């Protein structure tokens, strides 16, 4: 049998087989405990042949008592050492719940839970550990504030605090024992935590916040691909997809795909607007998480992965690779990877992104590089954009 480690660092449980060394240490410690217990039993049950109480006899009794006390201390020390070794072998770490001013709800959530039927014979698991992001340790004050509320009462209106924690790497967040604020979806006229309080305010901003239904129906440049054309490349095998990035803040892409009987899950964060509320109001599925989070989906489940501004080629190449590999992981063999107007800035950054994409061996069904003026960039010059539809290959 192997021991099991539950590592909290990335919010997931991992099971590792014990090494020969760790097994030997366990056996040695077990033998030590058994030996000390047997010696203690012998000391308590030993009866001398002569019952005459002599000073020497008293001395022996005192000596035995001292030995017994020493044995008890050794047993206690051995048990503590075994507990430390077990924790090391399990390998999990958690937030320091002994620090002052930590919310009681957070302490309760982080408690380890023993399995109701004891140790699992197949995996060796004895307890489950609460799943929170490793960076929560650095934001313990904010996390404690997030977990301060009235149990069974209404949750604080603190989505902005939750998003701040997520963007600091404190993801996944702990669950809470409170009721989320009920917000009417009709009209979506007001919301909290943002500078603008209504749609009219947002539409006055430079880029607006319009429900652009024409983007994927009518092309305005050679970089704009139409939904019907892309679905045809999938040979009518596109049923479910994942939309990554902030290019469809109002869920227009998912809403249009729903009209084609394709279910799209949209990754969201509320940037200057309540994106999640708007997307849900249209009857499509928002997923509130950052792009630094491992996508919470099983391998090879999506027929389509649609990426807009989520691929920032200005970041470190390794950072972009992590995102690309995880997007590739959730895309099935033969599925389509749609790069939709990815901003490359210049030709050098375009080549960097191209080299990365070519590592995956995708079949290029459509590949367009173009230039256009983008007011959002603010440079006043033409910027390079890449649009492509790629097909995931069979890998051996």
UniProtKB/TrEMBL annotation:
SUPFAM superfamilies: S-adenosyl-L-methionine-dependent methyltransferases. The chain crosses the membrane at residues 20-44. InterPro entries: Prob_Methyltransferase (IPR053223), SAM-dependent_MTases_sf (IPR029063). Keywords: Membrane, Transmembrane, Transmembrane helix. The keyword Calcium does not apply. This is Methyltransferase type 11 domain-containing protein. It comes from Gossypium gossypioides (Mexican cotton). The lineage of its organism: Eukaryota, Viridiplantae, Streptophyta, Embryophyta, Tracheophyta.
